[in-house]
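Researcher: I've got a protein sequence and the SMILES for flavin mononucleotide. Could you write out the 3D structure of the bound complex as structure tokens? I'd like something to compare against our soaking experiments later this week.
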Amino acid sequence: MNDHLHLIQDLIANRRTIKPAQYTGEPVEDAFVELILEAANWAPTHGYTEPWRFTVFKDEALEGLGRFLAELDQPDSKAEDFNLQRFERLRKRPAQASHIIAIGMVSGKNPKIPEIEEICATAMAVQNMWLTAHAMGLGAYWSTGHLAFKDETRAYLGFPDGAKSLGFFYLGKKAVDNPQGRRLSPIQDKVAWRTKN
Ligand SMILES: Cc1cc2nc3c(=O)[nH]c(=O)nc-3n(C[C@H](O)[C@H](O)[C@H](O)COP(=O)(O)O)c2cc1C
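Model: Sure. Here is the predicted complex with flavin mononucleotide in place.
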């Protein structure tokens, strides 16, 4: 029991956002990615809706994803304010990862379970993936931004109509040690305890 407690405290506190520029460029074995996805599927849900959906990008598909996002951001390369540097940054970023797990959410049919619960459950699935990747010594990061939530992105990722696209889980071998974590305020500032009516 105590061993588990220390282990989970350590994993939670030392998991970090490690971005694609901090990856070595070496591939992560697919078997590790499968284990990360398996961890996602153990997230809890209200009513077994299991709303998370994932599309895994690797190899050449990463370049296609980069181009898609760069063109969605700036569709007109002839436009006066076209920013080539920004375009190239967006285009090249996905290929810095070994794999990108695009995150989708499909709401269940039960009207008693509102969409917000499905989004909460999907976020729990992502945390499971993130902790698992960290326990494997891999770098990982959840990327969102305005492009992630667009319906065009949802369709590109192959998630069905009505589903939501919730961003990208980048994965790679780390070229750096995990940085020191920081939080702007302690938990006590965010918690109220009630003991009396
Ligand atoms: C839902 C979600 C979306 C995020 N989107 C972005 C993002 O688009 N860009 C970014 O730099 N970081 C993003 N992050 C990562 C946070 O910036 C990061 O988790 C935070 O700085 C705390 O650092 P840590 O993960 O190392 O504890 C996202 C995190 C979450 C949970």
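Model: The first helix runs from residue 2 to 14. The mean pLDDT is 97.
Researcher: Great, I'll pass this along to the crystallography team.
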